[in-house]
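Hi everyone,

Forwarding the result from last night's run.
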Amino acid sequence: MAKVGFNDCGIGVCLNFLAGPELPSKPTGVPVHCLLRMALSCDSLPKAHALLKRTARHCSFHMLLADSGMQFRLLEFAGEALESA
């Protein structure tokens, strides 16, 4: 799993949990640490960003997603909702 790290393609992730709506008793979606690991399996920032946008999630968090070319995305997820900068 991952919380902070980077891969051999230069993709890096960093995580901050956010207060948000309570989780349902039966969570749906992918746990955040698995999402981070999935992002690190990508070979480019656009692929990682697209993967995270289309994958169901079950908690609120902020992720810094960056690459070795100094490109980055700041992603805030509130369960299924996404805001990015």
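The first strand starts at residue 4 and ends at 6.

Cheers,
N.
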